[in-house]
Design goal:
Spore Coat Polysaccharide Biosynthesis Protein SpsA, Chain A; alpha/beta; single chain; 7 strands
């Protein structure tokens, strides 16, 4: 079976990386794209066997796109590196792509109320509703996804901040892609890490601003 690259954008996720990388399924290879960590994340990732790539340009989209460009597998997966998502869910998404989907994405299902702050959930609800109004049947903004690498590059996603995943969905919809969504457990992020989006109302508003910009 061919190895599948998993791109993990990373900014100060040292406390989460052992759990995330330790749960990577057989046949899945982690590419940790460090976006300027100051907590030793790159060294920890390398010691745990991950390929480490450095992206000095700040921004979620910058890190994700650099990981996509550095990947070499035909199919590529993406997920957060904070341990809120389980890498063992990735094969379900990959199976969907192998059986006809152009893009497989995850819908977060919180294991408890506490794991998803109200402001972050509200922002996600609004944005996913806007996507559905455009004909894309999703209830989340693709925190975990799998697709063909060459096809993703051909989409030409331009956003390099928090709007990247939303622009990807918009462009996929315009291109007529078949998108399949899977429910996955959404857990508390690893202790000692902090969300750049849901960790504060300000962070959520900034992310929503970036994402809403791609819908204009």
């Amino acid at each position: 079976m061919d190895v599948i690259d998993v791109v993990l954008p990373c900014l100060d996720e040292a406390a989460a990386l052992p759990e995330v990388l330790g749960a990577m399924p057989d046949g899945y290879r982690a590419i940790v794209v460090d976006n300027g960590s100051a907590d030793g994340s790159p060294e920890i990732a390398a010691a745990l066997g991950a390929k480490v790539v450095h992206e000095p340009r700040k921004g979620y989209g910058a890190a994700v796109h650099t990981g996509l460009e550095c990947a070499t597998s035909e199919l590529v997966c993406f997920m957060d590196a904070d341990a809120s998502l389980d890498p063992r869910d990735l094969p379900r998404l990959v199976d969907s792509v192998r059986t006809g989907a152009d893009l497989a994405v995850a819908r977060r299902v919180p294991v408890s109320r506490e794991v998803w702050p109200w402001h972050a959930k509200a922002g996600n609800t609004l944005l996913s509703a806007l996507l559905r109004s455009r004909g894309l049947p999703v209830r989340d903004i693709a925190p975990m996804r799998a697709a063909d690498r060459a096809s993703l590059l051909a989409l030409g996603v331009e956003d390099r901040a928090f709007g990247y995943p939303l622009e990807l969905l918009v462009r996929a919809n315009r291109s007529g892609w078949r998108v399949v969504e899977h429910d996955v457990a959404y857990r508390a992020r690893a202790a000692g890490t902090k969300s750049k989006v849901s960790g504060s109302v300000k962070g959520t508003l900034r992310a929503v601003r970036d994402m809403a910009g791609v819908l204009r």
